[in-house]
Amino acid sequence: MLFEKIKSDILAHNSYIVGAGAEAAVIDPRRDCLVYAAVARREGMKITQIFETHKNEDYVIGSRELARPTGAEILHGAREEFGFGTGVREGETFSIGSLEIEVLETPGHTVESISLLLRDRSVSDDPLMVFSGDALFAGDVGRTDLAGENRRREASEMLHASLHQKILPLPDGTIVCPAHGAGSVCGGKISDREYTTIGYEKTTNELLALSKKEFVERKVNERLYEPPYFTVMRRLNKEGPPLIQNLPHLRPYSARDIRSLTDRGAQIVDIRSPTGFAGGHIPRTLNIWREGLPLYLGYFVNYEDPIVLVDDFNLDLDHVVRHFVRLGYDNIAGYLAGGFAAWFKQGETVERSGIWSPPDLAENLDDPSIYILDVRKIDHREEEGHIAGSHHIYVGHLEDHLDEIPEDKRIVVHCDVGYKGSIAASILRKHGFGNVTNLLGGTTGWKAANYPLVKEEEEKRALSAPSPM
Questions:
Q1: CATH 3.30.950.10 matches 251-345
Q2: Which end of the chain is flanked by fewer CB atoms within 10 Å, N or C?
Q3: 81-128 pLDDT per residue, tens
Q4: b/e sequence 388-424, b meaning 16+ C-beta within 10 Å
Q5: Domain limits, the chain
Q6: Which ranges of the chain have pLDDT less than 70?
Q7: CATH topology of domain 2-239
Q8: Is 354-464 CATH 3.30.70.1250?
């Protein structure tokens, strides 16, 4: 029997290829899909079926792309109309050599979500694995807010029923194969475990121990961020994403080309570290460090204007391009030939943003000309505490709240460590804020330097306490 998990880094997307004899099936493939064909070729197998557990929101699905060279049949849940493939219903079974895949309809995360129960009939009739899509994760369950607030309660009730009536009754030894791992935006707090089982989740996953009422209330009140690009993903994955056949070829641009492209509306994305960006960057550019691209591109980059990358040494750009392709950014056009050095060697204008260490901020904490902006997720701020006197806007929502930020003060932005803070600094600089500083180390460095974080209640009490006579 063939079983292989294919992980897409950063997005924390898991896809799988299973097979026996001469046949194989792929579950939830990514768009750059040659890896599955390579595995099948290595094992002497033909991919005959491709399953999509749901239409997905955080990446472009790869079933159409993989079906083109393999001729495999695409199968998805039948509760929603797709522009491609064949809808399947509860109880339908599919044979892959000695393996049998049975469809379980498990709506909740999305209405058409399915899970796939795998048996190896050559060994036993008992379930071996369940591919749970976004219904059940290690230590978590799928989010239920993506159909809209008006349907959130209904979706939460459906997910509870799917879990307790379809998935959890499976034998405790059944291996759970979810579509995402730790770090995915499709869950709240997915555990960092490669593998889990039904029995282990029933014992350790606190959400599964809740009553139906408690579960629904927890999910209805869960606060998760939805990047704007999710809307594009839902449309593409329902209608059928365009075929790309190969990764895009990036064109090398000179410094003068970049200046001209910027004037015509091109999106310049600087993928260097926060320190490199702060030391000098092309004016009006967005800074997202390499590993942060899949998580934050969808908040700030559009699908129309060409995208050009800026790096120091342009190493392994093919890997970077995969991040864009997986999110549907087929408008990625090129890169600055020679790296950022080519820009300043040409004598072009260089902008800078400031950087501070925690002691720098501590020394100036009472300075009224400073505005401290916390761009972490709200749950991090509430659970860990915050720097006294700071204001909060999540980095992904920053462009929608620029009018709340004073233009006549020094803006000191911070996050957990400094990477999201650099995104925020680049956005503020791009929108004309002239005095912007990123706190390197963020709250992690702040705590390591033994400076306090306060909770909202503590700060309110301190502010309302009467002044000593």
A1: no
A2: C
A3: 999 999 999 999 999 999 999 999 999 999 999 999 999 999 999 999
A4: bebebbbbbebeeeeeebeeeebbbbbbbbbbbbbbb
A5: 2-239, 251-345, 354-464
A6: 462-469
A7: Metallo-beta-lactamase; Chain A (3.60.15)
A8: no
